[in-house]
Structure prediction request, 672 residues.
Amino acid sequence: MTIYDISKQAGVSIATVSRVLNGSANVKPKTKKKVLDIIEQCGYTPNAFARGLGLNSMNTVGILCADSSDLYLAKAVYYIERNLRAGGYHSVLCCTGYDPEDMKASLSLLLNQRVDSVIMVGSTFIAAESGDNQYIKDAAQQVPIMLLNADLDCPNVYCTMCDDFKSTQDATLALLNKGINDILYLYNSNSYSGKKKLNGYQSAYLMKDVPLNKQYQQFFNGTHEDIDGVCKFLNDLHKKGLEFHAVVASEDMLAAGAIKYAKANNLSVPDDLSVIGYNNSILTTCSEPEITSVDNHLETLCSQLVKTCIGTLLGEEMPQKTIFSGELVHRASTAL
Amino acid sequence: MTIYDISKQAGVSIATVSRVLNGSANVKPKTKKKVLDIIEQCGYTPNAFARGLGLNSMNTVGILCADSSDLYLAKAVYYIERNLRAGGYHSVLCCTGYDPEDMKASLSLLLNQRVDSVIMVGSTFIAAESGDNQYIKDAAQQVPIMLLNADLDCPNVYCTMCDDFKSTQDATLALLNKGINDILYLYNSNSYSGKKKLNGYQSAYLMKDVPLNKQYQQFFNGTHEDIDGVCKFLNDLHKKGLEFHAVVASEDMLAAGAIKYAKANNLSVPDDLSVIGYNNSILTTCSEPEITSVDNHLETLCSQLVKTCIGTLLGEEMPQKTIFSGELVHRASTAL
DNA sequence: TTGTACGCGTTATCAT
DNA sequence: ATGATAACGCGTACAA
Prediction:
């Protein structure tokens, strides 16, 4: 069933059918109705490939994501997809894993698929060395690139992020202000956003003139689901003689591990150990006591990101960077 | 940059370029090299739309999912996408929400986009009334439909599922065998798979000749993240005088709520209350004590589903139904 | 082994 | 208000 079939049955030319299809003005109401009736009756729908070929677009955006099964990234992907669809765009999902080479290959794949834009979810895509981000700058010459929670100075690259630096700084400050000076910072990512958080922690110490100790900045090298592994990791630190009365984590899952560690060592939370997580995920209410956590307003971020994306595609002038603040959600794992 | 540009520069016809591009045999090595060099040098990639138009396929599969931010569904989407990509297919993600009308509309959207196949993730898409599934049967006349964790008898519809009936039956039986007869079954979905689980619970009682009480089958009507809501829900039941010494839940999140309920009421787990969840998600190790849960081998399911999908698209004969068994993973919330 | 020419189903430009 | 026709870029049957 093609536009030719419809045109024949309606006794008009394909041009007229096309005009009806695309809501073009100059078409006699009577003709329009006739064509629409035939279309309805035949259950005809235009061929998306042909349309794509002609318009050089299939209204499709690529979503690049290291791991869409991750609690936080999954939510991001979900919000982005829903917003894109509401705006009339399809989403091609592409999970890359954490290997830079795979990320590059995936990006190429999407560009070859002729997506209208690419959204990169999570700052794992931004390397510390500026040169390693060349693949993104190259891509930006073809289509606009949207970055969630990352920052990259480059034409046609748009960044939407939460102020992770300030959020982590605030969380740390809140503890320092309570007189807790031995705060363990626990993190598991050296991405752009990961670095910002670490800097926030450090900066809080500088602000309060409390000496910083490298021993208190611990990198957990494990999967994003291994809560028990985090617990053991902290146990080891404890056994090695490291003393800490608070944990600030770059992710709720690490904080959940800290809660487990406290239980295993009969530490009372928050009396003996305060815990602050990040992302305000379901893990915060699953733990006991519930975990104080930074909410970075992911839904708002995604909504704004998609607005920027669609606006750009429509040729509107859009802000190159959009920054939101995070918010500390207080729960029982702290007494602030 | 088109195939014509390449053909001119290489001094051959577009047919030859096309042959090189598609690895066709009959092409002189020397010619092939020349063409490949030019392609490399120009950074040429074929236009996916034109190719799609000609072949009537862009090697794309639609993934329909009610809510890809759900812990379990997110994992499913992730595994499916990775397997599809490994097989050379793109994934168009489409989150529908739980409104049947939106599901139908989303399916139409994907079909209009001319995907090669549609994968429906989760049994929420299968209605209890056979007639309500007509939209799926209609779709199956256009492209093969793959169902994850659902069952529908229809040509060109392929089902890959876990035996949720048996898994829940086993979980319930394990408790009954320990002499615990007042088991609360807690669920939050009336989907196909949801019903199977409930039936499994009931059947266990029948097998052991223990009288079944409707009061012990409780539907929790809330979001999929409201652990506190579940806790309150159980509190209310408790206050109303309902006594139970075990909870079998259709989802880990409900089980996590049960653990919280136990804590709030100073019940010892598993001495006073045994808890079994479903999905073996991260929530099982986040809770304290950790939760015994049914693992339904999602990764295997997804891998098999994609194999069936790709096989079907390649014209191979594929099994209409593939059923795997679940497995009870024992943790500290039960003493079995 | 290679080249020519047509078809895929649209959109859009230009006449009428 | 409507129709004829040229792109769009590729794959492929057929011819050479």
